[in-house]
Amino acid sequence: MRSRQAMLSFVVLSAALAVGACGGDDGADGDDGADGTTGADAPAYGPVLSSMSTVGAPALPGGEVQVFVSADSPEGESLEYEWEIPEGWEGEDTGGDVLVLTAPEDVGHKARITVHVSDGERQASGTTWLATRGPVIESFEASPLPPEEEISFSVEAYNHDGTPMQTHYDLGGKHVEDAGPSWTWEEPTRGMGGRHELRAIVEDPDNRLSADASVETTLEGISPWPGFGADRQRTGRTTHPDAKGAEGSEKWSFDTGADWVTASPAVGPDGTVYVGGGAWGSTVYALDPDDGSEQWEFDAEGPLQGGLAVGSDGTVYLGCDRGRVYALDPDDGSELWSFDAVSWINSSVVLGADDTVYVGSAYQRVYALDSTDGSKRWKFRTDHWINRSGPALGADGTVYVGSANSNLYALDPDDGSKKWTFEAGATIRSSPAVGADGTIYVGSGDNRVYALDPEDGEKDWSFETGDSVQSSPAIAVDGTIYIGSNDNHLYALDPEDGSELWSFETDGEIFSAPSIAADGTIYFGSRDSYLYALDPDDGSELWSFETGDQISWSSPALAADGTLYVGSEDGRVYAIE
Predict the structure, then answer these.
(1) How far from 286 is each of 180, 267, 269, 317, CA to CA, in Å?
(2) Are 97 and 81 within 8 A, CB to CB?
């Protein structure tokens, strides 16, 4: 934010004056030679520039600056002025000794302006520098990247008018105020890892101007699979090097007693498996990863259909069809807090860099909740319910979520204000996924998969399948998009243009989102009751595992040792190795 009022002051900036003179040749015959001129008749040195000065410099961005030049001709000749207006500055050269310019909107912008003064035969030139107010960042460093136990930040900046500055940091949506030019982030591990934009903001609080610089890096999550989609971008891709190698044999299964398990499991830092099931699917279970034995259970008093998430301290977050969001103690499943979202929730929870809890509701709202006490930070109304589509986060923390009104929304993580909206051709149940370059991928009930520009939501491309796309995308390391369709196919799409690389056909609709192992193997469930493993090169089947009923919305989670966890509509949770 900044004021547009021009603050005028008389400032003489350093000027480099270059004067060129064109004098006569005295000639070979001396002072009185036929071809020479006498000393009295020798030409003057042309225009003389004595100074250049400015009023209004340094200028507020978008403000006005006046530039003056003082020049005269010793012989009394009339003078002509020609100005070189720097790029980004606007003004009209009227040929006079004063130039009025409008500064660019950029903070801390520096430019050189030159004037040429001529008496018709001879010319002199002068140069001075103009600048807009506000900080300038000369260098910004964050190290080590990728981070180990901590990240150290270093910022070198200056202010053109010498006003004191403050240095803040935005860590993918986590704000640190007035931390100084040197600061260390001691615990960069997040609940849900993924791409984070690390930004330094240098502010001139007096003039309400700022400059920023940033880098992007991948931060590790609290576990190999802390929630639906594995990370906050919902890429569906593990970063754990040993999360691979499952061969399709059952390690154990756990009977929840429910008619179905549609929730997607999450894995805690100690390997504990969290999933919803039980009577009407309303019970949260914590299961031992070794044998599937129950460690504890919690009754949410409403069916659990979305994915759970594990915070940076191990807290388990979830929403239920009762219309409540819960935070549970990972040690015993006791309730830490709950939030009333008014109407049912089958949207998967996602966690921000500061563990802010983002979730969608059938009450036509997206909520941002404080993870410490469940208090509401903000809410955004979508004008239609949010059905299945779980929010995903960009590297800068931008919140992306789909709605039953066919819209995908991009929301500011600070206050929930709308950045842009994209309208598909039908309801969006698919949870968006965000690529390494920020591109957003999402499916729609109009049979299409869309790729959207993160800046404005404009469509980059779309790919048409044979039926509604309710599955959510997964994104491979090379950017390949994997997504299922109600036409029974899983598709591999080129991220550049959306062209089909290959497809694999099952005997049922595919709601389940794919999951990608460390070696690139793709796992997903189908409503034909099978869990499939596919070769990423050509989509050929590596193996399949049959459950007792269809696998609908439950998407596989990957443990650190490569074990897969998935729910089935036979009421069981399976561990596949």
Answers:
(1) 43, 9, 13, 13
(2) yes
3-state secondary structure of 75: coil
Q: How far is CA 185 from CA 148, 174, 190, 217, 276, in A?
A: 11, 11, 12, 14, 35
CA distance 329 to 342: 23
The token pair at 384 is 């239609």
Q: Which residue has the tokens 């031992």?
A: 288
Confidence class for position 545, pLDDT limits 50, 70, 90:
very high
Half-sphere exposure of 122 (CA within 13 A, CB side): 21
Please state, in angstroms and rounded to a whole number, the distance separating the CA atoms of residues 281 and 25.
103
DSSP 507: S
Strands (E), 412-479: 418-423, 433-434, 440-443, 448-452, 459-464, 474-475
Nearest to 264 by CA among 200, 198, 335, 350: 350
CA–CA separation, 10 vs 399, rounded Å? 47
Instruction: Check whether the bond before 146 is cis (ω within 30° of 0).
Output: yes
Contacts of 194 (CB under 8 A, 6+ apart): 218, 219, 221, 231, 232, 233, 235, 393, 395
In this prediction the pTM is 0.85
Q: How far apart are CA 561 and CA 388, in angstroms?
A: 29
Q: What is the pLDDT of residues 316-355, one digit of tens each?
A: 999 998 899 999 999 999 999 999 998 899 999 999 999 9
What would the pLDDT profile of 228-252 be if each residue is shown by its tens digit? Answer: 999 999 999 999 999 999 999 999 9
Q: 331: which 2 tokens?
A: 């040690």
DSSP letter for each residue of 289-319: TTT--EEEEEE-SS---S--EE-TTS-EEEE
Helix (H, G, I), strand (E, B) or coil at 39: helix
Instruction: Quick: pLDDT tens for 549-576.
Output: 999 999 999 999 999 999 999 999 999 9
Tell me the DSSP string of 372-416: TT--EEEEEE-SS---S---EE-TT--EEEE-TTSEEEEE-TTT-
What gap in Å lies between CA 133 and CA 131, rounded to an integer? Answer: 7
pLDDT(434) > 60? yes
Three-state SS annotation for 549-571: CCCCCCCCEECCCCCEEEECCCC
Six-digit token string for 532? 């499939």
